[in-house]
Amino acid sequence: MFTFVDSIEDLAYLNEELSQKPYLGVDTEFRRTTKDNMRLALLQVNDGDETYLIDTILIDDPGCNADFLFSPSVLKIFHSCKEDLEAIFAWTKKEMVNIFDTQIANSLLDGDFSIGYQGLVEQEMDIVLNKNETRSNWIRRPLSDSQLKYASLDVEYLIYLYEIQIEELISTNKLEWHNQEIKRLVDSLGLDKEVLNTPVNRLSVGQQQRVAAARALLGKPDLILADEPTSALDSETTKKFLNEVMEAFDSSKQGIIMVSHDVSIAPYFDSVIDLNKNHA
C-alpha cells in the first residue's frame, strides 16, 4: 500500500512528518533527454511504516517542503544513488547530505558492486520483484496502477537491506573503514567533499575522472581496467592519484591494467608494453 502525494499542501504536511524520522528509503523515477537535461518524475519514500509516492510533475517546485531530503539528522537510504541525486537536484536545486547506498555497502561486504536493487533483494531476502516497468514512461500522466505498484516496491525493502548491511558493516569493522576510505580517497585525489553530492554534469572532466577512480577503488575489485584515467589531470594530481592507486594495490594484492599515452607514468608499473614498438 502507498499514499499518493500530488499537492504542495500535502507535501508540506508530509515534510514535517518525515523530518522526524531517523532514516528513510528513497528512490526516484526520472527522464533524461540529454546528458545535461534530467527531469524528476516521481519521488518514492518509505519511512518503515508507509510508502509515499510524490508526484514531482504536479509539484514542480517543492520550495522548503522537501527539507527532509537535506536534513543531516535523517539518513537517506538509496540503491545506486548517483542518478537519484542528480534527479533530486534537478527538482530542488539542492544537494543532499547523510546518504547510505546499499549497492556500495554490498561491495564492501565482498558482494557484487554492480548488483541491481532487485538482485540484492532476491539475494538477501529471497524475494523476486517484478521488473516490467523498468523502461516505463514516467513523465506521462496519469501513471498506471502497474507503474505505481512498481515504484512503491522500489523502496519497500531499502530499510530492511540497510538494517542487514549496517549490522554486518559494524560487526566486520567496515563501517568506519568505509568512512575513512572515502575521506582518504577524496583527500588524496584532490576532490572537494562537496563533489560527492554534486551532479555529474556539473563536474569538470578532471573531477569526473577522479570520482570514477575513487568509486572503482572503493569496491576493491581483483582487477581494474583503466583507459586514460589521468588524461585530464595535472601532473601533481596524476602523481597523487598513481601513488594512491599503487598503495591500495600493494596492500590488497589487486591488479590494474592501464592504457595511456603518458609515458611518464611507466615507472609506476611492473610491466610495460609499448604498442608502437610492438607494431613496428
Please explain how this structure is put together.
The protein is α/β, with parallel strands linked by helices and 280 residues long. It has 10 helices and 8 strands. The protein has helices spanning 8-18, 82-92, 102-108, 117-125, 145-156, 158-171, 174-188, 205-218, 235-252, 275-279, and strands spanning 2-5, 23-34, 37-46, 51-55, 75-78, 99-101, 223-227, 255-259. A 6-stranded mixed beta sheet has the order 1-4-3-2-5-6, with helices on both faces. A two-stranded parallel sheet has the order 7-8. α3 packs parallel to α6.
Provide key terms for this protein.
single chain, 280 residues, alpha/beta, six-stranded mixed sheet, two-stranded parallel sheet, 10 helices, 41% helix, 17% strand, globular
Average pLDDT metric: 83
Share in helix: 40-55%
**Most strands sheet:** 6 strands, mixed
Number of helices: 10
Radius of gyration: 21 Å
Portion in beta strands: 15-25%
DSSP E strands, number? 8
Q: Show unreliable segments.
A: none
Shape: globular
SSE string, helix = H, strand = E?
Answer: EHEEEEHEHHHHHHEHEH
Task: Please give a quick description of this structure.
By secondary structure, the protein is of the alpha/beta class.
Layout of secondary structure:
Layout: E1 2-5, H1 8-18, E2 23-34, E3 37-46, E4 51-55, E5 75-78, H2 82-92, E6 99-101, H3 102-108, H4 117-125, H5 145-156, H6 158-171, H7 174-188, H8 205-218, E7 223-227, H9 235-252, E8 255-259, H10 275-279
Parallel strand pairs: 1-4, 2-5, 5-6, 7-8
Antiparallel strand pairs: 2-3, 3-4
Helix pairs in contact: 3-6, 7-8
